Amino acid sequence: MNLFRLFGDLSHLASIFILLHKIRTTRSCRGISFKTQALYVAVFVSRYLDILWEWVSLYNFVMKVFFIASSCFILYLMKMKYRPTHDPSIDTFRVEFLVGPCALLALIFNYKFTFTEVLWSLSIFLESLAILPQLFMLQRTGEAETITTHYLAALGAYRALYIPNWIYRYFSEGVVDPIAVTAGLVQTALYADFFYVYFTTVIQGQKFELPA
Amino acid sequence: ETLHRQKDEL
């Protein structure tokens, strides 16, 4: 474990708590893409189900359980408790266009052609694109509540911090995970535009608004 | 084998 990864994971944890806080305090899931959240459930369940047969560490186990549970809980909040506050008419990204190509990529690029390894690859590819429905929604509405932008910033920081972690591990352990690195670079790049607006507006105390 | 997945990463 190095600091980049630790802070990356903590940032990921923070993003979940920010999202839960946003839903609770505003009693609404307005501005949150249900499709993105549903993709995260698929990502975490397919990747972290290995807790059933693989023991890595207590840290690893607790985090995996937390991410599976919290993503399912958020989906429950959106679908049941705060259902009326979710407007499907602006959450229109076509998810099937992501899942198909990701499944194909997972079949081609994996470390072993077994069910669990292909599933792992699929979860990595899917995670890298899972934020797209959310960013698409942001683009459509052109603005976001400040708390929602903090959620996205924490989520983006999580994957961004994994990049120095991989560089560090390459030099200290001599290991590279090309699938995770490639997907991670793509995922971080998707946030570039968001981060630019976030740092030039929200951090300066202004409202997050995209130029028309 | 230097190319493999890191089982400890989340």
Describe the structure.
The complex is a heterodimer of chains A (212) and B (10). By secondary structure, chain A is mainly alpha-helical. A two-stranded antiparallel ribbon of chain A has the order 1-2. Chain A is globular and about 45 Å long. Chain A has helices spanning 3-26, 34-48, 58-81, 96-108, 115-129, 132-141, 146-173, 178-190, 192-200, and strands at 143-144, 208-209. Chain A has one domain. Chain B has no helices and no strands. Chain B is mostly loops and 10 residues long. Classes of the chains: A mainly alpha (212), B little secondary structure (10). The interface between A and B is medium-sized, with 23 and 9 residues.
Tell me, briefly, the overall form of chain B: elongated
Q: How many whole angstroms does the radius of gyration of chain B measure?
A: 7 Å
Shape category of chain A: globular
Structural class of chain A: mainly alpha
Largest interface: A-B, 23 and 9 residues
| Rg result of chain A | 17 Å
Mean pLDDT of chain A: 95
Q: How far apart are the first and last residues' alpha carbons of chain B, in Å?
A: 21 Å
Total DSSP E strands of chain A: 2
Distance between the termini of chain A: 43 Å
The structural domain count of chain A equals: 1
Task: Report helical residue fraction of chain B.
Answer: under 10%
* Percentage beta strand of chain A: under 5%
Give a quick account of the main beta sheet of chain A: strands, pairing sense, barrel closure.
Answer: 2 strands, antiparallel
Low-confidence segments of chain A, ≥5 residues, pLDDT <50? none
